Amino acid sequence: MQRRAFLGLVAASSLSAMTHVKHIKKEDESVWLSDEQISVFFSVSKKIDLVKRYVGHGNFNILCYDDMLKTAARYSKIGRFTKVELDFMEEIFYADPNEHGFYGSRTVPSITTKINKKDVIKIPRTGHYLFKGHSDESYSRVISDVGKSLVLTSGVRGVPKQMDLYFRKIKSTKGNITKASRSLAPPAYSYHSIGDFDVGKKGWGYKNFTVSFARTQEFWRLQKLPYISMRYTINNKDGVRFEPWHVKII
Ligand SMILES: [Zn+2]
Fold first, then answer.
1. From residue 37, how far is each of 19, 33, 64, 199 by CA, in Å?
2. End-to-end CA distance of the chain, in Å?
3. What is the DSSP letter of 124?
4. What is the mean pLDDT of each run of 10 residues along the chain (250 residues)?
5. C-alpha of residue 82 to centroid of ligand 1, in Å
6. CA distance 191 to 199
7. Residue 28: its pLDDT value, please?
8. What is the 196 CA–ligand 1 centroid distance (Å)?
9. CA distance linking residue 159 with residue 19, whole number of Å
10. What is the per-residue pLDDT for 132?
11. Which residues have C-beta under 5 Å from ligand 1, the single-atom ion?
């Protein structure tokens, strides 16, 4: 999204409500992107998106932070991340999300943590990767137990991928970080970085990431499997919304 478009959006909804926002903050204790962070948030989001388009969705899933920076610097149409942009990404990555209502555990120690290509396997026709061993073996078992109408919808995610998803979520909440964190783990806190994965019903698209998935036969078959469980149950302690599609391996 162009910054202009965002400013339009903001003018229409949240900026005109910025004075209003301050009241909301007090009321529900949400943490919001600060006024100073808004422009850097948009420039960073745009560059990350351009890198993703450049390397392709599949490769972007497991791209590491340093390679994202190198890719941006190498192509003039993207452009090197500026000091302000790097500081912003680090600030977000190393922030303590307890402050904005997310209580999950840190899963990625450093912003530069890499995913070794030899540790992952690409799952055909999905564009997603799984860690070799426990994750990909469990996934194969799940597919053979539930049936081929079930499919991997998100697997291993590197730091840039989780950052991209997180920033998109913040965009959709118009800057409400607390609300965003309830539906998506901050970049250093995703269990997708250590083996969890998402599944869905083939052909269901975005609906797979809604509570509708909990009403499918596939979901109920998943519930019967003793070797997996649901990471984000209703009222989970991490403060994340109910995610019936997110699989935790036992
Ligand atoms: Zn997930």
1. 17, 6, 24, 34
2. 40
3. T
4. 39 38 52 94 98 97 98 97 98 92 93 97 96 96 97 98 97 95 94 96 95 96 95 90 94
5. 31
6. 14
7. 67
8. 7
9. 34
10. 97
11. 198, 246
165: tokens are 């998803």
CA–centroid distance, 4 to ligand 1, in Å, is 32
Interval between CA 159 and ligand 1 midpoint (Å)? 14
Q: Which residue has the tokens 């599609």?
A: 245
What's the CA-to-centroid distance between 248 and ligand 1, angstroms? 9
pLDDT of residue 99: 86
Q: Which long-range contacts (CB under 8 A, 24 or more apart) does 135-141 make?
A: 135/195, 135/197, 135/249, 138/227, 138/228, 138/247, 138/249, 139/197, 141/225, 141/227
The CATH code that applies to domain 3-249 is 3.30.1380.10
Return the domain boundaries, the chain. 3-249
